[in-house]
Write a structure and sequence with these properties.
By secondary structure, the protein is an alpha+beta fold. The chain has two helices and twelve strands; from the N terminus they run ααββββββββββββ.
Length: 189
Amino acid sequence: MKQSIVDKYIKGIGITFVISMLFSCGNSNKELNDFLANKNLPIRVGENIHDIHQDSGFVNYKMETPLLYDYENRKEHPYYEFPKGITITSYRKGGDSTKITGNYAISFQKTGVAEIRGNVVVNNYKENSILKTSQLYWDQKEDLFYSDKKFVLYRDKDTIIATGFESKGDLSKLETRNNTGSFNLNNKE
């Protein structure tokens, strides 16, 4: 069945009108953010993210993730979610670096606390130490790691197996609970 030119013209006007109505709604960013927050939808989605943060020319950290959801629109607890994993390498002056990897992460903006789950590995290259656990909390403001889960910490002279720990972000000043494994005790402090 052939459409007349008038039918095509009317149809075109109708489509143009609908599209105009969709894009001319005077929704502000706040209204859009509220709508997305109510539907528990992220405000932004990023794929294959490679972020480098530096201060005064010094690289503080590098972050890589295949998928990032930004829930910055949440009023009470804005957060970033990394459902396909994350790798963060932090750099300290003096050449020390720590690399954190995990299968999933969520980072809360107001508190500065991140939870990393699933095959969590923390490497301190300068101290040649590796921590492995299923879950890790990272207080980014205080530069602390802590967990109540079982972990294994491999160091040059010992291996610590325990359930629960707290340490600095470079795995120093380690406090553990429920310990097993081999220890090299040093009373320098």
